[in-house]
Amino acid sequence: MPLATLRHMELTGSVPALTAAYEVIRQPLGEILPRLSAVLAELVPHRAAAELSTHCAHSPFKTYGDAELSGRLTTAHLAPLLASGIPGRPWQGTLALAGSEWPVLAVTSRATIRGAVLLLVRDADADAVDAPAAALVQALWDVVTSHFDRLAAEALPGALARSRTAAGTRARVIAELGEAYAAALTGVLGVLRSRTLDDAAARATATDLAVSALVELRAEAERDQEIAEEPACQAFARLADSLRPLVRYSPVRLELGAPDSARTVAADVAHTARVIVRTLLLKVLEQEAVSRVHVGWQITDDALRATVRDDGSGALTHGGLADGGIAGRLEVLNGRLDVDAVPGWGTTVSATIPLRVSQDPSPDPLTALGERELQVLARLALGHRNRAIAQELHISESTVKFHVAKILTKLGVESRGEAAALFHAVA
Q: How confident is the prediction for the chain on average, in pLDDT?
């Protein structure tokens, strides 16, 4: 167990591991990776850190550290490590990054159902990490991912709303970028395949490179979908596993109706549906005259419908079932709860969650901006000039000018002053 490993390492005097773990998980989500990197820096010196955490629909991929390295890391580097990694067996090897080979340490955890991987990029001349140090990194990462899983499973309505908005925005941005790059690369292929070109070898090489770029671009979108979404049947199987212990020693017979659908659902929708069904089942089991409960999911093009039906007295009411956080969770996702009680025959409770994100009639204009554009706009709103912004964000002035031009276009304003005023109005 991770906790046992941490205690052992603390008692043997390597580091105050339990204190370190506490210092990491007490941070806000956005600060966990920087804090974890700082905690591990003395034990395993490294220049950059990255994580791929499938629990999070908001931002599953994060990087921290040396901008030259962390800026080059992508999900394409971490996804294979997550797929092939073995929990409890940290992997050491090299990674081609920024034109060089860098020694890395990769640690995989299965504390969350679909796993998470931590990557530490080390100095080029770094020695191999010894076994005790690697074991401590593994233990800390297991603690952190267990914390992630709890936060995902017990997400508050506000966190659900942010996650849903971010996931929808990211999907839109990926679609837009995909269309733009696919059009550009297809045009390049058309030129390179032209019979007017003389150097056949150069044409063949360039064609292969362009085809590889197209394949990688499509793979990026597929990887994002795998992280941000979950197959409905798999999501229901996880629910079933969590419900069976609730009736294991009860006379109540539990019947399960898995969804007859091969489609995927957003991770936050799946989390919410599971939490709601568990809460409803506990309410139903509080009745005395229940001998059978049926739990089922139905997936349509527009919604996930989770149903809990019992053969009890039919005395349950909407007011008695809407507490326990159910109402708040459904409200965030624009869902609804329906209760159909027939005295003497039982109660059927249905929670319906839309699968498509509805459009806000007054959307936040800043949602159109990317993360870097928001960073530039925030500094622009403080009155900083391009040179100061470039120094603060460690980018060139020409890059700042490019971001400012994109910001003005996306916000539909004509000057930096108007953009700053809009930022202050929204913020």
A: 77
What the block records as the tokens of 346 is 């039982």
Asked if 388 and 397 count as a contact pair (C-beta separation under 8 A), the reply is: no
- Are 292 and 253 in contact by the 8 Å Cβ rule? The answer is yes
> Quick one: which of 374, 20, 420 has its CA closest to 169?
374
Please count the other Cβ atoms lying within 10 Å of the Cβ belonging to residue 355. Answer: 17
Exposure string for 143-164, b = 16+ CB within 10 A, e = fewer: bbbbbbbeebbebebebbebbb
384's enclosing H/E stretch is: none
> Which residue type does 15 have?
V
Q: Would you say 21 and 143 are in contact if contact means Cβ atoms under 8 Å apart?
A: yes
β partners of residue 351? 306, 337
How wide is the angle at C-alpha 325 spanned by C-alphas 166 and 110, nearest 5°? Answer: 60
The one-character DSSP state at 86 is B
393, amino acid identity:
L
pLDDT at 258: 92
pLDDT for residue 2: 46
Rounded to two decimals, what is the model's pTM? 0.43
- Strand partners for 340: 348
**37-91 pLDDT per residue, tens:** 888 888 899 999 998 886 555 567 888 998 888 888 887 788 888 888 888 899 9
Find out whether 64 and 34 touch, Cβ atoms under 8 Å.
yes
Q: At what angle do helices 267-285 and 131-153 cross, to 10 degrees?
A: 70
Tokens standing for residue 280: 């409803």
